[in-house]
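Translate structure to sequence.
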């Protein structure tokens, strides 16, 4: 019976986590609300996109309305060391990092889950739009959420069997309008609170400004060149550009030019026309397989190369040393080293890893 089980709900002060908490109470669990206090730049706490004083107050208010205890967990230093520093290190290394992946793996399902278990909780629930199921072989599976526009299975692909065994995702079978409707039915004060977007620790600042303050070594100017080496202009620092970027290059051309790659060794930004953007061959490293192992040495899968990207069919080959080579059926635009590649079969997440390199 659910009343014999304790679940800690990771609350943020937003509508999704608040409805998740209300649903857990409705389903008869012993529920505890818990919110992470994350790092922000000095003097920027109110500008942070999550765990602001207002968000903390909203979460406390919702917990009080639901009649559940509420705790704030200080994760500021761990968040700064693992999430923010990996973000800075990625740009210094010439890749485009994905801090949300690091946060989910090490902060939410690391620090917060440990605190939940220390309280004796059987599960941790969140407001993510994804599903956890039990497979025929007894292993836990991660599936896409019903709402295709809100599905967050991509950012949860770094979870393992142990973490999934203690995870509840009550919004996975709901669409966003239904969640807001539920919030009104529960009379939650956050029913119309807007969704948070962008990187939480940047506040109102552009990531470029953040890099200038915290990793000035990533902002070294250099040449903008074509594939054949023709110099077209000067860039302000490779970290300020993304693969596929068209605007803001500061160079004149009869044809629109796009960022094709960032050559860290020569500190050159390589540009070309739209037809040069597509790639079919990429390497993926630091792979996490949800089942604990690859399905087989070679298999077909749909691959997503960034959170909002469309799924693309590919042949996936796993080398004996675990290295992953992906051969897309059709050229895919904007494959970016440092970003997450996630593999799907029939809406089930096989796993995900970091894009390491793209074949020329």
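Result:
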């Amino acid at each position: 019976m659910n009343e014999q089980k304790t679940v800690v709900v990771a609350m943020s002060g937003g509508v999704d986590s608040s409805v998740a908490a209300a649903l857990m109470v409705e389903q008869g669990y012993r529920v505890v609300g818990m919110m992470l206090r994350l790092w922000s730049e000095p003097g920027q706490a109110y500008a942070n996109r999550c765990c602001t004083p207002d968000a903390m107050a909203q979460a406390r208010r919702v917990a009080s309305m639901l009649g559940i205890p509420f705790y704030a967990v200080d994760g500021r230093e761990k968040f700064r060391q693992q999430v923010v520093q990996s973000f800075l290190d990625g740009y210094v290394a010439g890749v485009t990092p994905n801090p949300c992946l690091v946060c989910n793996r090490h902060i939410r399902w690391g620090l917060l889950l440990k605190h939940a278990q220390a309280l004796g909780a059987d599960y941790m629930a969140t407001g993510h739009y994804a599903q956890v199921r039990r497979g025929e072989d007894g292993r836990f599976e991660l599936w896409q959420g019903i709402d295709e526009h809100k599905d967050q299975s991509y950012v949860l692909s770094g979870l393992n069997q142990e973490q999934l065994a203690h995870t509840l995702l009550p919004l996975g079978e709901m669409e966003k309008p239904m969640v807001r409707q539920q919030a009104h039915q529960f009379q939650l004060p956050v029913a119309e609170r807007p969704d948070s977007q962008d990187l939480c620790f940047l506040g109102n600042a552009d990531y470029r400004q953040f890099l200038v303050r915290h990793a000035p070594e990533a902002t070294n100017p250099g040449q903008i060149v074509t594939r054949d080496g023709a110099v077209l202009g000067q860039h302000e620092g490779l970290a300020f550009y993304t693969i596929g970027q068209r605007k803001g290059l500061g160079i004149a051309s009869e044809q629109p030019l796009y960022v094709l790659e960032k050559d860290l060794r020569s500190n050159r930004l390589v540009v070309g026309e739209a037809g040069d953007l597509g790639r079919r061959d990429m390497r993926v490293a630091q792979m996490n397989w949800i089942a604990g192992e690859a399905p087989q040495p070679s298999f077909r899968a749909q691959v997503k190369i960034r959170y909002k990207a469309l799924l693309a069919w590919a042949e996936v080959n796993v080398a004996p040393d675990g290295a992953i080579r992906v051969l897309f059926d059709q050229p895919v635009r904007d494959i970016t080293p440092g970003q997450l590649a996630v593999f799907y079969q029939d809406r089930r997440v096989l796993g995900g890893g970091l894009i390491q390199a793209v074949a020329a």
